Amino acid sequence: MSSEEKEGTNDEEVSEEKEVEEALEEELPKLSIQDIELLMKNTEIWDSLLNGKISIEEAKKLFEDNYKEYEKRDSRRKTKRAVSKKVKKTKKKKRV
User: Fold this and answer.
1) Are 48 and 54 in contact (CB under 8 A)?
2) What is the C-alpha separation between 8 and 75, in angstroms, rounded?
3) 17 or 27, which is more confident?
4) In which element (H, E) is residue 40 found?
5) pLDDT digit string, tens, across residues 57-76
6) Measured CA distances, 17 to 12, 28, 29 (Å)
7) pTM of the predicted model as reported, rounded to 2 decimal places
8) Contacts by 1-9 with C-beta closer than 8 Å and gap 24+?
């Protein structure tokens, strides 16, 4: 194999890797710090449940509490985003 053929093969591999990375980025949602915290809390609940430290009822209540807390934070975050988008749109209109 000549050096040109090797370069072509390497370029193809790099190109394929970039495509895979881009596909993964599109498939996976971006996680906020709050999302990661919720995931960690839920993982700890599962760990406790599987190790017999808490009952299914306790785990269910903890999951529900975590979800309610997450919903509150998420609704506040969505409201803030909507407000900031409106502000940005009005600023753009003024510039035109």
Assistant:
1) yes
2) 50
3) 17
4) helix 33-50
5) 999 999 999 999 888 877 76
6) 9, 16, 20
7) 0.51
8) none
